Write a sequence for this structure.
């Protein structure tokens, strides 16, 4: 019978990524509930730095999949290598952090291994062997519980910060090499250059007050409503991704997982729903005010003040009141 | 060049969603639906590639009858034809079941390129396109923000984390999942809307594709409003009162006035 929980480790510049430490924490907690051991897999041309870093964690074993063809991540390289490890070790559960890399290969790997994956989970529960996974649906408005009843391996990807990496238990872990059988002709993707996007003109990380705009602003012309408030408050304008995609403001004003991370004294959001990819970029703001007409908007879950109402009615009045108060 | 765009219909972005009585889905009756956000970008990219490479764009949509509106819209924007996979239960299926149905419906089409959105705004699995690629034996790339067709292959720019990007090349046929932002979204013209009426829409029944429909590994047990982790003061009602209360908070709690 399948046994154990495998965590696939992701790394940057020879260091284990935080999202993988969070995944390990989740795996340890699940392992304790299910009475199962936890082991990890590292893939690289040289795994030693990462296995060294993990050897002081409480893990049953760390498999080092060292191979020159794994120097660059490719979906085929990772899938073929990990399929071999999974077939050999036969884990009951595989956990990865829901990074961009995991988005790219994890579902494919699950299917290749005869399993199935539930992505972007925020909690895992095991009750007498039955696994229940919680994840956000409808862009964070609701949570959903999924039960697992498959015959194969249960693959789970965990949303960033689903578990706290500071709670990862220390211990010792044995490192074992795992020889991968990989032929360059099996890797269909050719990796070319990587490069950084355009440099940023505004540094929102240094802002004290941010007035952030979302698609609730409806049209580019309405930008003036937000700009008037921002200027009255001495604030910088931040934005959600769709607003930047549409070119209303520059991409350097985007807040979120693929934009800037900010922590101003005040983050005042106008017509932003509060999708997780936005929230990760601003949730450490000291004070959060959100104006949204939808009482279920997930932004309200992290707001200090939730204003349920029409921004077009409220914001102009607020601007006048701020001017008067100053 | 034969190009498919997988297009999903989801509730409009600012729909006021409520849970249904059984707590396993939303109340759909008063909800309006539209094309999923990142799928708009996928469609736009499919149309661009088709224009430059003598291509034909096929819209592939699985869902109940209501999705025909979105199909019509995509055809009006310039797609050439459509495949509608009729499935009343799609909303609660697990991602692998969805992907198996879609793959079964299009496998004989031998598309050179299959595009999808990165993620659906309702269920947000972020895996349907990747799974379809794997079932059909195609290489894939996700988080694609730019494409360029070369001889027998495609070069794509992928978004990475932390503001980085990466170029990769894939042999054709290939599957790409498209991240938002790469190109301008086309509007439907009056002429396009007129022409759309004549474009072929093939109807396929999900039940007829030989895919096990309720044997998925994951079952959606319930959906519910999340429990808040933070103390939040809620203001609603009269705008003037809200503004007065807000100014007080900004002065005394946020201390920014
Ligand atoms: C890999 C990936 C990375 C991403 N990175 C980012 C990122 O870095 N940053 C980011 O922001 N997003 C990012 N996203 C997108 C994210 O998932 C959401 O789609 C996006 O944040 C939604 O933007 P929004 O809230 O402005 O729009 P919507 O979700 O459309 O929300 C608009 C809101 O406005 C409200 N509204 C409408 N009219 C009014 C009115 N008159 N008054 C008051 N309220 C009103 C609505 O109720 C709604 O809540 C990413 C997505 C993916 C998949
Ligand atoms: N029912 C469907 N019909 C057509 N395409 C779909 C369907 N479900 C998902 N897709 C495609 O797969 C992408 C990712 O969806 P998801 O895996 O649900 O996040 C979407 O953006 C669509 O392009």
């Amino acid at each position: 019978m399948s046994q154990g929980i495998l965590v696939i480790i992701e790394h940057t510049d020879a260091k284990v990524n935080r999202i993988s430490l969070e995944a390990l924490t989740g795996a340890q907690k699940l392992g304790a509930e299910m009475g199962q051991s936890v082991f990890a897999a590292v893939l690289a041309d040289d795994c030693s730095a990462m296995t060294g870093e993990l050897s002081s964690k409480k893990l049953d074993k760390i498999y080092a999949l060292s191979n020159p063809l794994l120097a660059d991540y490719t979906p085929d390289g990772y899938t073929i290598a990990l399929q071999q490890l999974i077939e050999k070790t036969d884990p009951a559960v595989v956990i990865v952090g829901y990074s961009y890399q995991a988005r790219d290969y994890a579902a494919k790997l699950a299917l290749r291994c005869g399993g199935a994956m539930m992505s972007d989970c925020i909690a895992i529960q095991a009750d007498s062997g039955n696994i229940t996974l919680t994840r956000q649906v409808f862009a964070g408005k609701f949570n959903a519980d999924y039960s697992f009843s498959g015959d194969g391996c249960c693959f789970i990807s965990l949303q960033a910060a689903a578990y706290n990496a500071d709670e990862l238990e220390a211990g010792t872990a044995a490192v074992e090499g795992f020889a991968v059988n990989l032929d360059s002709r099996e890797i269909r993707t050719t990796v070319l250059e990587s490069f950084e996007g355009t440099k940023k003109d505004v540094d929102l990380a240094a802002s004290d007050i941010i007035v952030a705009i979302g698609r609730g602003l409806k049209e580019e012309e309405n930008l003036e409503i937000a700009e008037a408030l921002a200027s009255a408050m001495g604030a910088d304008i931040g934005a959600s991704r769709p607003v930047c995609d549409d070119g209303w403001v520059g991409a350097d004003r985007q807040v979120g997982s693929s934009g800037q991370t900010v922590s101003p004294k005040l983050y005042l959001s106008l017509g932003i729903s509060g999708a997780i990819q936005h929230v990760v970029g601003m949730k450490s703001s000291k004070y959060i005010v959100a104006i949204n007409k939808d009482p279920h908007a997930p932004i309200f879950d992290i707001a200090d003040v939730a204003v349920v109402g029409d921004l077009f009615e409220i914001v102009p009045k607020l601007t006048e009141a701020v001017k008067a108060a100053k | 060049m034969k190009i498919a765009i997988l297009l999903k219909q989801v509730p409009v972005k600012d729909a006021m969603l409520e849970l249904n009585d059984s707590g396993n889905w939303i109340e759909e009756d008063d909800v309006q639906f539209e094309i999923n956000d990142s799928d708009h970008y996928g469609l736009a990219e499919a149309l661009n590639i088709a224009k430059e490479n003598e291509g034909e764009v096929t819209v592939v949509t699985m869902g109940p009858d209501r999705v025909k509106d979105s199909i019509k819209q995509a055809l009006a924007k310039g797609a050439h034809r459509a495949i509608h996979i009729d499935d009343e239960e799609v909303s609660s299926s697990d991602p692998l079941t969805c992907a198996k149905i879609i793959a079964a419906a299009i496998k004989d089409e031998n598309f050179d390129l299959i595009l999808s959105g990165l993620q659906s705004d309702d269920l947000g699995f972020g895996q349907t396109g990747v799974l379809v690629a794997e079932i059909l034996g195609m290489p894939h790339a996700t988080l694609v923000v730019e494409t360029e067709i070369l001889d027998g292959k495609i070069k794509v720019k992928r978004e990475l984390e932390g503001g980085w990007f990466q170029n990769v090349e894939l042999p054709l046929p290939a599957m790409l999942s498209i991240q938002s932002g790469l190109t301008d979204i086309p509007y439907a013209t009056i002429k396009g809307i007129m022409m759309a009426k004549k474009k072929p829409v093939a109807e396929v029944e999900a039940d007829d594709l030989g895919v096990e429909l309720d044997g998925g590994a994951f079952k959606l047990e319930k959906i519910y409003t999340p429990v808040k982790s933070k103390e939040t003061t809620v203001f609603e009602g009269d705008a003037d009162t809200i503004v007065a209360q807000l100014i007080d908070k900004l002065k005394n709690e946020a201390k920014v006035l």
About this structure: Chain A touches chain B through 90 residues (CB under 8 Å). The pocket of flavin-adenine dinucleotide (ligand 1) is lined by residues A 139, 214-216, 240-243, 254-259, 271-273, 275, 277-278, 281, 291-294, 297, 310-312; B 13-14, 118-119 (CB under 6 Å). Residues 18-34 of chain A form the longest helix (17 residues). Residues 204-325 of chain A form a domain with the Rossmann fold fold (CATH 3.40.50.1220).
